[in-house]
Amino acid sequence: MNKIDVISSLETVAQRYDALLCDAWGVIHNGVDLFPGVAEALSRFRETSGPVVILTNAPRPSFVIPAQLDRIGLPRGAWDDIVTSGDATRAAIEARLPAPAFRLGPAKDDPLFDGLDIDFRPLEEAAFIICTGMEDDAHETPDDYRDLLERAAARGLPMICANPDIVVNWGGRLIWCAGALAEIYKDLGCEVVYGGKPHAPIYDLALERIGALRGATDRARILAVGDGLKTDIQGANNQNIDVLMIAGDGGVHEGASDAEAVAAKLEEAGLHAMGVAEALTW
């Protein structure tokens, strides 16, 4: 089994990089609380190395995220820009318009549709599905939607999934995301289109933002930070970008924070990381 370096602090590796792509949920916060040391780590990286772009699979456009980060206490001086799965998903939606769509998700995700002239219809009249999650992710599970997904599959409707995450750790409790519904739909043999991590569209946007902030940047000089194997780690590997895996209690791999366990998980998934840390600190 391959070994993995334990990174005690971001400061020990920051000089190798000119830009940082940082996951939000599971690295910066748990949906309720800001993790200790994160604000300093991001701020110090900006001061000593380069821009910080927050890269999140939130199924909403990036303009709604700053207020959320404000509420949990992350200072605006800790980041330069934000790119979301919602940003990357809008292009996929626009490409299918003016065909009518079936909407699957909660009202809190409505900002995703701002400025898009979408003709929402019942499932039986729709040409495709836009999935942002479950309507009540505090109480529902993916199995609650199996009948609906089977009916959609019988019609062969393609799905646009606005959040590839399967689960997130919300204040210590795992809740299901849109990606869990998309997995069921794929298993039913249907087409699913993704914009967020680990898929290319969100990285294309993020690299554009880095270019705007500091000019052309070698990918070898960009560091990604994340906790999700199938999203953050897989996405960085696909883009040939170094990635630091956060494997402490705040992420989705709680209890896998020792290097040997992380190395085993990575090897099993066919992935690699430049190192593992308990948390993002300076």
N- to C-terminal distance: 29 Å
Measured by DSSP, the beta-strand proportion falls in 15-25%
Q: Would you tell me which CATH topology of the largest domain applies?
A: Rossmann fold
Proportion in helices: 25-40%
CATH class bucket of the largest domain: Alpha Beta
Shape: globular
Number of strands: 12
Q: Sheet with the most strands?
A: 6 strands, parallel
Q: What is the correct CATH architecture of the largest domain? A: 3-Layer(aba) Sandwich
> Cα-atom Rg, whole angstroms?
19 Å
Low-confidence stretches: 251-256
- Strand-pairing-aware structural class: alpha/beta
Helix-strand pattern: EHEHEHEEHEEEHEHEHEHE
CATH superfamily placement of the largest domain: HAD superfamily/HAD-like
Total DSSP helices: 8
Mean pLDDT: 93
Q: What number of structural domains do the residues give?
A: 2
Strand order across the largest sheet: 3-2-1-10-11-12
Task: Set down the secondary structure blueprint.
Layout: E1 19-22, H1 38-48, E2 52-56, H2 65-72, E3 81-84, H3 85-96, E4 101-104, E5 128-131, H4 146-154, E6 159-161, E7 167-170, E8 173-176, H5 178-187, E9 192-194, H6 200-214, E10 222-226, H7 229-238, E11 242-246, H8 259-269, E12 275-277
Parallel strand pairs: 1-2, 1-10, 2-3, 4-5, 5-6, 6-9, 10-11, 11-12
Antiparallel strand pairs: 7-8
